[in-house]
Amino acid sequence: MDGATCFARPAGDRFPRHMPAPxxxxxxxxxxxxxxxxxxxxxxxxxxALRHLEPLAGATFLDLxxxxxxxxxxxxxxxxxxxxxxxxxxxxPLELGKRLTPGARWVRGDGTALPFPDAAFDRVLSFGxxxxxxxxxxxxxxxxxxxxxxxxxxxxxxxxxxxxxQPLEFRATRRAW
Length: 177
Fold this sequence. Notes:
The protein has about 180 residues and is an alpha/beta fold.
């Protein structure tokens, strides 16, 4: 892909060279800032993305790579989605999210092998998570598989220059995405 990079973050500034970086699952369970996400959400930014999925009223909604599930909260509360499911592969954010949005369904699962039947959702949002999937192409294929004909999906990814401390990142130019 032109202008694309897929890599595992090298042990560097955060991890001494003699200490390997944690595996993705370990990183998200132990180190990722989910508590901060739960306490200080950027709801206006999430709603700007969700507005592209309108109408949400009466829809089945999947928050793919949900973290603590603020997008699910907004889809249910403000958007009036009929069903809101928050999926993440880490246990910790789902437990935090259950307290924030008890009306949602919480699923621990792999975004590259979704545990849902074909055409199960009217609306899907993946906000800042797809670029951390171990196989981005498979993640998009699964998103397409579970989206109903005529359904809508919004995938928000960072620009090429954004770098986080997360173990896996796919960074690409707009054209490459």
